[in-house]
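Feature request, filed as a ticket because there's no other form

It would be nice if the structure record came with a short human-readable summary line next to the tokens. Right now we just get the raw output. Example of a typical job, pasted below so the devs can see what we mean:
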Amino acid sequence: MVPLPFDLPDDQFDRRLRKINGALITGGGVDLTKLDSPYMVAASKLLNFSEAAWANGKEVWPLWGTCMGMQVLSILGAADSSVLLSEAYDSEQLMLPLSLTEHASTSRVLCRDCLAFDTVHELTTRSLTVNLHHDGVEPSSFAPGTSLGARFKVVSQNVDRKGKPFASTIETTLPGGAFIVGTQWHPERNQFEYYGNGSAATDFIDHSEHAILAMHAVAVRLVGAARLNQRSFADFDEEAKAL
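Raw output as currently delivered:
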């Protein structure tokens, strides 16, 4: 994994961006309200780069946003930070099954015929997805005719403890092989994140074999997409310096 700090000088950021095979926008706690902030400007470069790679040369350059990363993609897609509802959701430490929309049949990630074992069945019938957010984007913000709906479709949606709906998985509307995905849930947490002393009383995350296999199958989709382009560093030394 090559880090891509948002505050790198522009020339270094752009040079490194051209050499990597895709990008992950992680969760976190950054202020997303200003589209001209250094963080959001850097994130917009990732989105534009991925979209242009596919639109101009049918090159798959995957971009994935997790939790806050999905919120970043939503704001950039709408060009409006108000689509993100702040402190609006009761969904911290909440495990949920995914509720798929009609767009799931063409999903690059939640496709029944591209995932190991019956991952979609597991994700939609068991409470496997880890939600750790109080902000979110309403599914209605992706309606046809909106700026956000023109760039992203909602593949799954969920509701918080009070029944308020939020988009839980989004994907680009670009046709074919473009791979731009956002998940409000955390695929990495089931295997790698433990709370308290790891006991059932303090750890709300499902660490079962079902959960770990399902999340691994989802992660494999991102890794597989990154293998579809031939971008690389000039040599081992250049790559080692970037790690």
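Something like this underneath would help us a lot:
The longest helix spans residues 38-57.
The first strand starts at residue 23 and ends at 25.
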